[in-house]
Amino acid sequence: MNTSKTTQREAFALGVIAVCIGIFVGELTSNRSSEWKSPVDSLGSWIISVIPRFLESFAINLFGTQDKSVLVGIILLVALLLGGLAGDLLLRGKSRIAYAIVALETIFGALTVIARPHSGISAVVPALLSGISTALVLYFALGRVKIETTKENQSAQLSSRRQVLMFAGGAGVLGALMLISGQKVKTHGLNAIKRLAVKLPTATQPLPPPPVDPALQITGLSPLITTNDQFYRIDTAINTPIIDVAEWSLTINGMVKNPVTLSYADLLNRPMFELDDTMSCVSNPVGGTLVGNARWLGCRLDDLINEAGSLTSADQILSSSGDGFGAGFPLNLLDGRDAMIAVGMNGQPLPIAHGFPARVIVPGLYGYVSATKWLTNIELTRFDVKQGFWISRGWSQLGPIKIQSRIDYPTDGAAIPHGKFTFAGVAWAPLSGIDSVQVNIDGTWKDATLGPVLSGTTWRQWWLDWDPTAGMHEIQVRAVAVSGEVQTQDVADIAPNGASGWHTIKISA
Ligand SMILES: Nc1nc2c(c(=O)[nH]1)N[C@H]1C(S)=C(S)[C@@H](COP(=O)(O)O)O[C@H]1N2
Ligand SMILES: [Mo]
Which residues line ligand 1 (CB under 6 A)? Predict the structure, then answer.
């Protein structure tokens, strides 16, 4: 009894090890050539592309910006469990099912590799090698065990083979981890060093330095300008793309008279301007944090489009990043607003996570329809011909940022100590700007004090002193735009075109 139990456990472990070695081989080979793609990354990208957005938002809320690592972790876990299952089946003599599992896993991985943009047929090489090595290890570790007839022989054979294999497996896994991280560190590191070497141009007419930030004085208030490392991050990329600025180029083509291609140096040589702009994700819930305010540096998008000369039949500007992401907005939204190809963020070259070397920023639009990071192409096209990444997944074709306000301090459910304190938060209403913010305390609206205006497309900080009475209180906030628009109380979900409603919190004093 005891022996057979151990044997089963060993078989499971050997199956897991076989998959570890397979994954090692897959990652190792995918690092050998830019044509060959990592099966793990491809599976992740595929999952992100089919996952319903509400689930993605849920994952983002749960795991924050670690959501991609969690996804990769889940993929690895499932693969290892399937390996264990295959090991177990082999021990029971069900070798056909065992190998079928490995084959299906391999084929599925290979299909997700093919599904990635710019995948040639050779892209599946790592997936195939990974599957073959898994099957071979399984075969040599467990496949021939059944030749022995008695249970005793079986387990004796396994035990001696076990030690060799456990050792080989352990070494393989360790090697794989070192290799994968080593390669990632090397390529990402090189990318990071090249970014550090970039010398940003200065704007033709630099903006005045931002005013003193009220957040320095007011507890819990969001800073006027979000620092680069505090800025939210949302994208479909498992790994940020490795882009060599020396080779990178931006092409403007499609329904244009003269296609334009710019190198990074060409781009930096164009007249530059600075833009203070608040960008939000359409998935930002009421009161949420998927929104940030930065000082961007870049060149005018409308000038570039004018140089390319759009045909009158075009109605959409569709930008894309070469990794399958695309974002499109109506051409007629280039109405003089300061849309830009951004190269700088808060005085630094765009951080890699935020789109280095270049991205699009269009004031007043959610990121999913405009703000393509790791930009490589801008195509003039028609909405009835082509659409951005999220549109076929149920998100609205048009994505103007809705007027919103948020209570930063105190947080929902907080217990406030006795005595005076200050409510604080931010409100935004691009392109118009914020005219006033009111706070509803237990049913009475009071006007909040407003912070400085950076531009019509940036958020404004607000605050309000209050001397609470003991007990529970319900607090709401609403904003009024310079245009006269009052933030609606009507609650809307983030899908399909952005959340609305008043941010409401309960606190006790
Ligand atoms: N290449 C690429 N660009 C992208 C995305 C993406 O998935 N891939 N996501 C968009 C979305 S949905 C948003 S909200 C913004 C987020 O930009 P940030 O990560 O710099 O905050 O980037 C946009 N640009
Ligand atoms: Mo987004």
Answer: 231-237, 281, 321, 325, 354, 367-368, 371-374
Contact yes or no for 352/195 (Cβ under 8 A): yes
Find, among 259, 335, 265, the residue nearest to 300 by Cα: 335
Of all atoms in ligand 1, which is nearest to the CA of residue 283? 14
Q: What is the pLDDT of residues 170-203, one digit of tens each?
A: 767 677 666 666 666 666 777 778 888 899 999 9
| Residue ranges per structural domain of the chain | 5-194, 222-393, 404-508
Which of 341, 368, 402 to probe ligand 1 with, by most ligand atoms within 8 A of CB?
Answer: 368
Nearest atom in ligand 1 to the alpha carbon of residue 360 is 24
368 C-alpha to center of ligand 2: Å?
5
Nearest CA to ligand 1 atom 6: 235
Let me know: does 82 contact 88? Beta carbons within 8 Å: no
Q: What is the mean pLDDT of residues 314-327?
A: 94
pTM of the predicted model, to two decimals? Answer: 0.81
How many A from CA of 298 to the centre of ligand 2?
Answer: 21
For residue 439, the model assigns a pLDDT of 98
Q: Domain 404-508's class?
A: mainly beta
pLDDT band at 148 (very low <50, low <70, confident <90, very high): very low
Beta strands in 142-233 (DSSP E): none
How many angstroms is it from 256 CA to the middle of ligand 2? 28
Whether residue 129 contacts residue 25, with contact meaning beta carbons closer than 8 Å, is answered with: yes
Ligand 2 centroid to Cα of residue 200, in Å, is 27
Convert 353-418 into a string of H (helix), E (strand) and C (coil): HHCCCCEEECCCECHHHCCCCCCCEEEEECCCCCCCCCHHHCCCCCCECCCEEEEEECCCCCECCC
What is the sign, positive or negative, of the torsion defined by CA atoms of 292, 295, 297, 303? Answer: positive
Centroid of ligand 2 to alpha carbon of 57 (angstroms):
10
pLDDT tens, residue by residue, 435-449: 999 999 999 999 999
Segment 60-84 shows an average pLDDT of 82
Q: Rg of the Cα trace of the chain?
A: 28
Tell me which residue has tokens 């990652």: 27
**Is-contact 228 354, C-beta < 8 A?**
yes
Q: Which of 235, 283, 390 is the best mutation target for the ligand 1 pocket, counting ligand atoms within 8 Å of the beta carbon and taking the most?
A: 235
> What is the CATH topology of the domain spanning 222-393?
Sulfite Oxidase; Chain A, domain 2 (3.90.420)
pLDDT, mean of residues 48-58: 75
Residue nearest to atom 16 of ligand 1 (CA): 234
